Amino acid sequence: MGVFQNAFKSIGEAIEDASSLDVVTFKGSIEGELNTDDLPDDFTKVISRAKGNTNVRVKLLASTQVKLDGDVLAYFDTGITPEEASAHAELVSLAQKTREATIEFVRRVVDMKDIG
Amino acid sequence: MSEQLFDELGAGLDQSVERGDLPNPGAKPSEKGTPNDTDSHSYIWALRTRLADLGYLGENTGNRSSVSTDPAFMHAVKRFQRDVGELQDRWAGPVTWRVLQCLVSFEDMQEPRNWNLKVPLHESPAVARAAWLRLWVMGFFVDGRNARDADWQKSKLRFNARIEAGAIAGSDAFRSAFARFWEFARRLGLLAAELPAVPQLNHECLAVLFNYDAIVRKLASAGKPGSSKTLLRDFHEQIDDFREQVEAIARIELWLLGYDCAPGPPRMGKKRRIGAREVGAVPTQLSVVTGEFWHDFSNRPDGVPPDRISPALFAEFGRLLDEKEVEARDADQVVRKVNEILAQEKERDTEEFFFVKVFRNLASSIWDGVKRLAKFLWRVIRGAVSAVTNLVRNLARYIASEAREFFYIVVRAVDAVQGGVDYLRNSIHPKKLPTSVVFSRRAGFDHAMLVDSSAARVTDTPAFTSYRHQARCYCAGCVVLGELVGMLGSVARLATGALAGPLLWLRTLLALGRFRAGIERVKEALALLKDEKNYSVSGTAAGALMLTDVA
């Protein structure tokens, strides 16, 4: 499967799961958690492996869910630093922009009447 | 200078042209009878010959045969004009020519009173030279019986001879020659009683010397049919005492009649040859020419030798002279008639001239108009070509600038698409350790971020910065691809004629406008990447699709 084919597959999956946008930020020891050069493809594996390692503690710092109708559900740990909060917020912004760009691209490709 | 002075100056110049003192600047070269004829080679040659005869030019072949107006010639002309009291403008016009002809010719103006010189005759060196020349040509510088060629040559008027009239008149040779002529004229009965016994350079004496026709007529009277024996005897006496002079006069007359006989010293005739052997003695030129004369005029009396000077020969000269006068009178009548006809023609041509002038002016105006129109058209064409050239040049610059800018846009767009593809392809970022931040992206663009406990300033870490760049590239890439799909659709519609119709050109313009708007949107999308610090596209980086660096 080619690069663009994979990309368009990802875009299709994103469209299917466009009803909400979840952004979660954790804090932990990456060196202790990931002792191999290559990270696993699935982040859940990272988390599960982190949870399985009793020597490492992974802490949830922040979680944001943006609904399609505009509702926002946010959680911030009390021990989160401003820098970490800012990083979480920028990640939420980047995720929204990429999703909007994807939706706009699909809209232009599908709806081409106003192009020519 | 006032206008009146200019008018007077112009009128004076016009009068000078009419008198022939100045050349007519408006005369055509082909017209005859204009003062400009004096510019011809034959005229200059005639001037040179006469000036050489009078000793104003050196006696050599170059001076006689040349037709150039070299400094020596111009100096001689000026000196002659000074000697006769004429204008010293170094231009030998009709006035100068008339005076020169009076002094040298044996035919024209034989009365010195009619020469109208501006200086007294006895004070003019030119007149003294002319008298010397006249006496020399008629042979009075040599002895009448024992003349030799050397005697002729030593008495010839030289170029370096003293030019003052008094010096010439005071010359012993000149006085002897003039006295010899005076005796000759006395014997012919040419001298009036009141004339002095010793000749002088005055009107009276010069009138006898220069009245060539009278001399010929006197010599002819003895040979006329029915003349007395006394006259015939007198003629023979003259022949005996002035044989050389009478022969010289005969040579002059024959030369004037057009025979091959040069005036001046006697010359030998052409040798008669039979095969390669000469026959008999060499005859003189005069005897040969005399024979030719009698051959042409067959009324030679019996007993008259055909190759010698005789009273009958001069009688024939006299008869021809009288005929020439009749012819001259006829010629005068002809000239007057011609002048009358020319005057009538001139009056008749006045109207024609008017129309010719009108048409000439009209043609000139038309020609000027055509030239101005041609110049105007040329300026218009040149201006249009220049404008078009500048337009094309500016257009080419604009297209090149736009093309360069579009090319850079394309390069950045390709880079953005490439970055966006990397963003989509990798669900975990970064893929390499060590790192302080790890990102995970799931379907639906849900994100999870794991921050290392020791990480500080998370947003400035390389992993966060690169992930941010990839996310922006993805956004820009979506815009680029979306617009590209739209452009391809427009091109496809134009190519397949989907826009064909009565408003094809309008739709085409709209499509191009949207094409342009799409490019602007791509530029705006790419502008987000330019906000990033140290962002540039490297053509040499590994995996780069475009081998072009764009800062």
Structural write-up:
Chain A is an alpha+beta fold and 116 residues long. Mean pLDDT of chain A is 72; it is low at 35-41. Chain A contains four helices and three strands, in the order αβααββα. Chain A has one domain (19-110). In chain B, 61% of the residues lie in helices and 3% in strands. In chain B, strands 3-4-5 form a three-stranded antiparallel beta sheet, with helices on one face. Chain B is mainly α. In chain B, a hairpin with a 5-residue loop joins strand 4 (437-441) and strand 5 (447-452). The radius of gyration of chain B is 56 Å and the shape is rod-shaped. Among the domains of chain B are: 16-104, no CATH class; 350-530. Residues 275-279 of chain B have low confidence and may be disordered. Chain B is built from 17 helices and five strands. The interface between A and B is large, with 62 and 57 residues. Strand 1 of chain A pairs parallel with strand 5 (447-452) of chain B.
